[in-house]
Structures are given as C-alpha cells and as structure tokens.
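Re: the multi-chain job from yesterday

Posting the exact lines I submitted so nobody has to dig through the queue logs.
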Amino acid sequence: MRQRRWLIVLMSPLALWLGLLFLAPLATMVVFTFRAGSFGPEHDVFTLENYRTFFGNPTYSRLLLSSAWISFVASVLSILLAYPVAYYLAFQAGAHRLTLLLVIIVPAWISFLLRVFAWKLILGSGGLLNIVLMAAGLVDEPAPILLYSRSAVIVALVYSYMPFVALPIFVALQRIDRSLIEAASDLGGTGWQTFRDVILPLSMPGVAAAFFLIFIPTLGEYVTPLLLGGTEGLMFGNVIQSQFARALNWPLGSLMSLAVLLFTLALLAVFVRLVRLEDWVQA
Amino acid sequence: MRRHTKLYNRIAFVAAIWLAIVLPAACGQPAAEMGAAPETQAGADSLTILDWAGYDAPEFWTQFAQAYPDVEVDYTYFEQDADALAKLQSGFQVDLLHPCSSWWGLYVDAGLVQPIDTSRLKNWPDVVPEMAKLGEFDGQQYFVPWDWGYESILVRTDKVEEIPASWADLWDPAYAGRLSIPDSAEVAQVMAAVALDIPNPWQTTPEEDALIKQKLLDIKPNVLTYWTDASELSQMMASGDVWVAASVWTDTYSQLMADGVPVEYVDPAEGRLGWVCGYGISSNAQAPDLAYAYLDAILDPESSANLSNQFYYGTSNRKAFELADPALVSLFKLDQPDVLQQTVFYQTMSAEHRQKITEMWDEVRLAP
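And the result, structure tokens for all chains:
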C-alpha cells in the first residue's frame, strides 16, 4: 500500500504534465475540427464542413502520403549511414568512444535553423559544390544544383537527424552480451555470419527505436521543406502552417494536425503488428 | 502580408497560437476574459499599441512625447496580420492597432475597431485621399493609413538578358528555374490577376478563379523556389540562385544595392503592387483621447518623413516627401501624384475569399 502511494506521488508530476500540456490541447484540437470558424459567432457553430474540405480535396491526402515517403526515405538513409558509425563506436572505438560520441552530437548544439540554412550555402550558386564543380571544369555556369528539390529536403533531414539515430543503435549494440559473439565465432561463424545472425537481430530494437525517433518528427517538419524544398519538396507541415498563420482557419488547421497524428499512430500500430520486437530479441 | 520577419519568429508564433488555444481551455475560462486586466481610468496614464516591431522609434511620435511627457506608451508586437487579428479576437486589451489594408474589413465586421472622428486630427487634410478611402467602411473612417510601400519585380541585371517589363513577362520561359515568387496566396492571386488583366483580384468570379489558378500553374516551371522572408530572398539574390523575384519590398532593393549587387527595381506596365498599413482605435480602448493625440503625432509631416528615411517606405502624408531624403523620393516617385493611380493597392478581403485563395494556393503549390 505504502509503495503504491509513493508511486502515485512520483507519477503525478508527469501525469499533470501530460494531461495539461498534451491531452488537454489534444482535446481542444479535436473540438476545434468541428467548429465553423476560429472565433466570433462561427466559433460556436458545429459543422462537418472541415472534414468535407479535407477529404474532398485529394491534394491533402496525396501530400500526406508524399510527406510520409520523404520521411521514410530520410529515416532509412539515416539508419544506413548511422549504423556503421554506431557499430564502430560500440565495438572498435575502445577508449576513444566518449570523444567520438561527442563529435557526433556536437553539430546538434548549433541552431537547427542555421544548419538547414547552411545547406543553402553549400548547394547554392556561390556555394562549395559549385566552386568544386567549376574548378573541375564540370560546369560552366554556377547553378543551384540539387537545391530546392525533394532531394535537398531529404539530404538536410538526414544530416539534421543522424545524431539522434546513431545513439539508440549504439546503445543497443553496446548492450549485446559479448559472450554471444565469442560463442558464434567458437562455433565457426565467419565475421559476416556473426553479424547477420547474432549482432544485427540483437540490435534491431535499437534500429526500430531510431526509425521512429526520426520518422515522427520529420513527418511534421516545416522549416526544412520551406527553405530547401522549392516547388516540389513541400511537406504537410507547410499547409498546416498556412491554415494557421495565413488563412487564420484554426478549425481546418486543427483537422490537418489531427490527420497527421492519426496517420502516424496508424503506421505505428501496423508496424508493431508486423514486426514484433520480442521476436527479434529472442532470435 | 509582411514578410520581413525572421523564420524563428514564425516558429515562436506557431507556439504562441498553441498557447492561445490551450490556455483558455485549460483554465476553463471563455477566451474573452483572458486579455490583460483593463485600465481603471479613462484618462489613463498609459497608451497601449499593438504594432509591428520597429515602429516604436521615438522619432515617429515626438509631438506626442512632448505633449504627454508622463504618459507611458506600451508596445506589444505582432509578426503577421493573422497574429494581430487573433490577438484582438481573443479579447486582448489595446488602444491602437496597426494592421494592413487587406485585413481592415475583418476588424470592422467583427466590431473590433471604432469609427474615427477625423475632424479631431489636424493633419488629416494632408492624408492622400486614395489611401484614406481604403480605410473607409460604410461611410465612416475606421483606419488611418500611415505607411505604405511597393511590391514589385527585382532583377539581377547582370544575369538576365532581358529585364521583364510587366508582371505578365514573369511567365517568359527565359526565366525558367530562376524566378522566385513569395509563398503567399494573397500575393499570388493579385499577381496572376494583374497579369491576366482581371480588374478586381479581391472579389473574383468562379471563372476568374479558374483562370488565375491555371495561370499560377503555368508559372511553376519558371519558379525555383517560393520565398518566405526578405532576408532569405536577399541571400538568394545575392548568391545568384534567383535572378528574378516577384513582390519584393523597397527595403530589400535598397539593401541589395548598398551591398553592391547589380539589381533593378522594375516599374511593371500594369503598375507596382502596393501595401498600405494604418492605425485603428480598438473598440474597447481605455485611452481614446490619447489615441487621437498619438495618431496626430505620427501623421505629422516630420514624423512621416522620419519613417520614410528610416525604412524606405512611403507615408500617407502628402507633405512628408518634401522633408524626406530627395534620393529616396525620386527613386520611389513619392512626389508624383499619379503614382498612386498606377499602383495596385491591396484591398480589404473577406474571410471567405481568404479561405478560397488559400485552398487555391495549396492546390497550386502541391500540384505534381
């Protein structure tokens, strides 16, 4: 009984936090999706008009899918790039492990906006890429190569979120019992076999965590596509922003935000069904 | 309409919106009660102004400071017009507010501003009538126009072979992949309408809507990217990513010139676009007398000239250009009376129209 009381005391700040800053706003948002206007008399009118607008216009659902695709590609690329780094840190780096870990994290200390903007300078007409290409005689006139496109958005997202991907994978690899690896080689497994059959499956929970750690925030991204996306790389966050900040249509903006949330939850549910994490661990 | 804001400010704005939605709900109070506590006295010792950042400069209201040395002027800032309207709608307590012309009608419709007795303003006769007209609703003056400026085409003269002579020229394939237009439904709508010779972009028929949408889809091959704030655009023009940009403000032009970037500010055949902003007196103003005194102080020719010299904007006072920097006056033709007839000023826009063009712009931007 006493323990339980302590548990309640310890949990209540978190519960309060979640309730006040997550659940209450979420409920407000859901209520707003049924309102006819942001304020004034229309504020109190119940309507399904927003749902008609949203589902009646294929532009929005198409954008949600293409944004999810951008996030998916960015997540997969980040994991592919981060995995070897995490592997090296966990198994090879030895005493330098902490220093190297710091090196990976340091860029995240710089303002996010600044790092996105830096890509404009690197890929832009007067940028590093063009200077190199000009010097090599590959192009005659500087042009914003790769910039203002979906690829530019993916490149910048991968760059920005990579540190967050490397960490959970590193932790998962770190936790692997070394005797399992020794046992694998005792039984005649080659390096590749050991990796494929022992290390990789055991690190999968870390990879899955990393995937969602990057997929969910990038799906809501708005700054990176705004600065680098040009005419083809816009994401769902951008239309939400224009409903709130330009059209002053909070009801439709709320519905769009809700749509992203439900979409992400649905993906998560499917993922959990398909890939049972415990199976990976037991394998 | 103003885009010379920084991106991080926009992020803060989104956060602010969240708070605005969340707090009233969390406290279980109607939104109207959430504003600052009202002043106790009508003959108050302070004046509250909802304004754009930068407009608090003392040289804009010296007469007011001299007449009322003990009155404290409190500024609250907003980043975008939508932000200001949302604030007022949720019961925010101010005396004066400073939105731009295309939003004025929404304040009047919602009863957020009170009619202004212009006979109480001694500088009112010097206000340009065309601009005064924009602030008039149902025969009453609700807004006093003060600052205005151009939005036009800016060109890197060293990069393009032919400088565009009109808005319609922006569709020329010669600028393929080198044009930047603002990420704004309102500007896109007006720009396309002007190029199509549609007389009133603020009230369009369904046929005109279809034409405008198609016109904007047609310009996409030319568009490299949509620009969102003035400093971002400056960087893209200076670096040479963008050669032609639409709807650029005069301050960006003068800044790039000062930096030695070869640019020309076009005088398009259809006329430049023009933004106008001005002050309204809130319907729940606590210090209306002080508000009138403040309005008269900013309308003073000298205060107005100070604004022109500082921001490279025009002002509504006809006498101000005589006192402003002559180079500035000739550059922007501030002294030519017919310039106002040639300029396409943003008109007031209904909420429905704004919603319609936002959806249209989403569809254009997101078209494959």
